[in-house]
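DUF1232 domain-containing protein structure dump, as promised
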Amino acid sequence: MDRKRSTAAAGQAWQIYSETLQPDAPGFFERVRAVPRMLKSVLRGRYKGMSFGTLGLLALGLVYIISPIDAIPDVIPIAGIADDTGLALWLAAVLVKSAGDFVTWERGGRPTVIVGEPID
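structure tokens r here:
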């Protein structure tokens, strides 16, 4: 991972961490506990704050981390682990940020979605 990317990743992680410390923002552990509820709401179509495309990318990223097949093999000392670590940090950052948005959405009251034709 080059310096610009690592600096950008560190900056994004710091921004998300700082966001969890705001007075009205959900805390880090509240966000972590909200991830399963958020995923369930996205899959059921209740929460529109995360698209199915983003959810698919998260799933593919998790499969890549778990899979023994890597773009950069782990036997290469630093680079082999850096790609998995970078991807894991990206996954964590997206989940924490999205979970914060989800908790804020939950606190604001969930709007009900009525499927059907609008009536004048």
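The chain has a mean pLDDT of 80.
lmk if u need the other ones
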